[in-house]
Amino acid sequence: MAEDRKSTCKIREHKIVMNSATKILDIAERRMRQTGYNAVSYRDIAAEMGIKSASLHYHFPKKVDLGTTLVRRYAEKFRNHLELETQAISEPEPRLLAFIDIYRKALKQDQLVCLCAVLGAEAPGLPPEVTSEVKAFFDDNISWLTLTYSQLGLSNPKPRAQATLSALEGAMIVASVNEDIGIFEATAQILATA
After folding, report:
1. What is the Cα–Cα distance from 18 to 11, expressed in whole angstroms?
2. Alpha-carbon distance 74 to 22, whole Å?
3. How far apart (Å, rounded) are the C-alpha atoms in residues 173 and 118?
4. What is the pLDDT of residue 18?
5. According to DSSP H, which parts of 87-180 are helical?
6. Which one of 48, 61, 140, 187 has the fewest beta carbons within 10 angstroms of its own beta carbon?
7. What is the DSSP letter of 122?
8. What are the C-alpha distances in Å from 73 to residues 6, 127, 192?
9. pTM (2 decimals)?
10. Kindly report the CA angle at 22 between 35 and 136, in degrees rounded to 5?
11. CA nearest 132: which of 64, 83, 77?
């Protein structure tokens, strides 16, 4: 009986710790997507959570730990979302449209720019570990797009994949700054028909 209580308490403590880490990452992601890596502090995140900033250091000892974990999580969520959206689609053109739509939804529904676009713009001032994770996100997406363009019959698909990703990321930024989703839509339409 006592063992069961100890086990239950440990499980509950683990859930609390995991929930706290998830909440920290959620807040950090939203803030970084709005203001960038360098504008976000542990103090800001802690204040929003109603805790002391020292508590954040339990989960993420340094800001670089928070940044790398956040980008890895973001990349994994993006990959999972892309897989979910395209798993039943065999034709490359609708797969490409689904890819574009993920960016559209982020901008329209969340009213946020891609985390890696924001961090990519800050790359010269980021810790190398965070920059490396951002690069991995872009590389993964370029690989996916390269395969998709290859399936569409392009003989040299990688430059097109790089241009597509660059156009989508840039369109998000310009549309956000101008508060005009039409800028993104015009880019998406060009990419979808080219």
Report:
1. 10
2. 12
3. 8
4. 54
5. 92-108, 115-121, 128-151, 157-178
6. 61
7. T
8. 31, 17, 28
9. 0.87
10. 60
11. 64
Closest CA to 70 of 130, 139, 111: 130
Give the pair of three-digit tokens for residue 22: 């998830």
Q: Are 80 and 54 in contact (CB under 8 A)?
A: no
Give residue 54's pLDDT. 87
- Return left, alpha or beta for 63; rule: phi > 0 is left, psi -120 to 50 is alpha, else beta: alpha
How many Å apart are CA 38 and CA 119, to the nearest integer?
Answer: 9
CATH superfamily for 2-193 is Tetracycline Repressor, domain 2 (1.10.357.10)
Q: Which amino acid is at 35?
A: T
Structure tokens belonging to residue 160: 């097109």
- Residues for the chain: how many in total? 194
The pair phi, psi for residue 62, each rounded to 5°, is: -130, 160
Q: Which of 140, 194, 127, 129 shows the shortest CA–CA distance to 167?
A: 194
Burial class (CB in 10 A: 0-12, 13-18, 19+), 156: exposed
Helix (H) or strand (E) holding 23: helix 2-35
Domain ranges of the chain: 2-193
Mean pLDDT per 10-residue segment, the chain (194 residues): 51 52 95 95 93 89 97 97 94 95 91 94 96 98 97 94 97 95 96 80
Radius of gyration of the chain (CA): 19
DSSP type of residue 89: -
